[in-house]
Amino acid sequence: MDSNWSLDSHTILYGVFGDPIRHSKSPIMLNRAFREVGLNAAYGAFHILPGTLKEAVNGIRALGFRGVNVTIPHKVELMEYLDEIDEGARQIGAVNTIVNEKGRLIGYNTDGIGYVRSLKEETGIDLAGKRVLMLGAGGAARGVGYALAKEGAARITIANRTKERAEELAEYMARFTEAEGIGLEQVAQAASEADLIVNNTSVGMHPNVDEVPMDTALIREGIVVSDLVYNPLVTKFLREAQQRGAAIHSGLGMFIYQGAYAFEYWTGLPAPIQAMREVVEQSFNE
Ligand code: NAP
């Protein structure tokens, strides 16, 4: 870590916009990253209430922020206020990262690509030709599904509590790969064929740590099971999957890598992944 790191009148500014925002781990993660590579930069958390997003985005231009992450509930509305939207973000229909190129605001989505990069690095899975069962059909599922399809997943089955949402998402996904939407109670067949099962629902997240999104007796040995939830770091779903002989992948990796891509888009430097992971893991133990 660079011990000469300090803030002054040259400091380049970054931040995250969301509502709620005080729980966000992004500031500690990104500030640690800037410090690790010795950049004179600072990253703050901004509580942006519904109805004020447009003004906040204009503030990025006015104040000359280099970059901003955007989280719930603003990822879709934000698209109206940007100058340019990257192809991936346009396909997903949501932006989580803004790059300010001399006053032109460009929107990216690093959630899906961050997810896939962490999944591949942590489990070694080659997604080409694989069959995937995705549980959940919300905003995160859209980005994850798009990125998995781009990696060559041969078939994606989306199971959701509200079946209509699974069917809608499958219709969208069918542009990129073979896709099907089913109800959450119909997962047995898809689970028996899946190489990868991903929990894209919030089931199992703190404080409901005793819940699982599907019957884990359906999980086969040797497959990969992944959970977007990262609080707790290892959910009950992942614990039971591991007991059944699956390789497991926690949601923390997605969080780290979506931030890593944002860091790389903003700075052009490779993200110091290890330091970013360490500081976030440490914050869970405090
Ligand atoms: P969202 O748009 O609100 O979607 C929530 C999904 O969970 C929907 O499919 C919903 O089903 C389902 N769901 C919620 N409660 C359920 C229950 N009790 N039983 C069955 N299904 C239930 O949320 P999101 O933004 O996609 O986020 C989903 C999860 O991913 C959250 O836990 C979030 O923290 C996590 N996430 C993690 C990262 C990361 O970096 N690791 C990034 C983004 C999101 P219905 O359609 O039936 O309501």
Automatic annotation (TrEMBL):
Q: Which UniProt keywords apply?
A: Amino-acid biosynthesis, Aromatic amino acid biosynthesis, NADP, Oxidoreductase
Query: Does the record bear Thylakoid in its keywords?
Result: no
Q: Which Gene3D superfamilies does the protein's record reference?
A: Leucine Dehydrogenase, chain A, domain 1 (3.40.50.10860), NAD(P)-binding Rossmann-like Domain (3.40.50.720)
Entry-linked CDD domains: NAD_bind_Shikimate_DH
- What does the entry list as the binding residues for shikimate? 24-26, 71, 96, 111, 230, 258
Location of the Shikimate dehydrogenase substrate binding N-terminal domain: 16-98
Q: Which family does it belong to?
A: Belongs to the shikimate dehydrogenase family.
Which segments of the protein form a coiled coil according to its record? none
Q: How does it assemble?
A: Homodimer.
Cross-referenced InterPro entries: Aminoacid_DH-like_N_sf, NAD(P)-bd_dom_sf, SDH_C, Shikimate_DH, Shikimate_DH-bd_N, Shikimate_DH_fam, Shikm_DH/Glu-tRNA_Rdtase
Quinate/shikimate 5-dehydrogenase/glutamyl-tRNA reductase domain: residues covered: 124-202
Q: Catalysed reaction(s)?
A: L-quinate + NAD(+) = 3-dehydroquinate + NADH + H(+); shikimate + NAD(+) = 3-dehydroshikimate + NADH + H(+); shikimate + NADP(+) = 3-dehydroshikimate + NADPH + H(+)
Q: Report the source organism.
A: Paenibacillus thalictri
The first-level EC class reads: oxidoreductase
Q: In which pathway does it act?
A: Metabolic intermediate biosynthesis; chorismate biosynthesis; chorismate from D-erythrose 4-phosphate and phosphoenolpyruvate: step 4/7; Aromatic compound metabolism; 3,4-dihydroxybenzoate biosynthesis; 3-dehydroquinate from D-quinate (NAD(+) route)
| Database matches in Pfam families | SDH_C, Shikimate_DH, Shikimate_dh_N
What is any one GO biological process for this UniProt entry? shikimate metabolic process
State the protein's name: Shikimate dehydrogenase (NADP(+))
Q: Where is the SDH C-terminal domain?
A: 251-281
UniProt KW Glycoprotein keyword: no
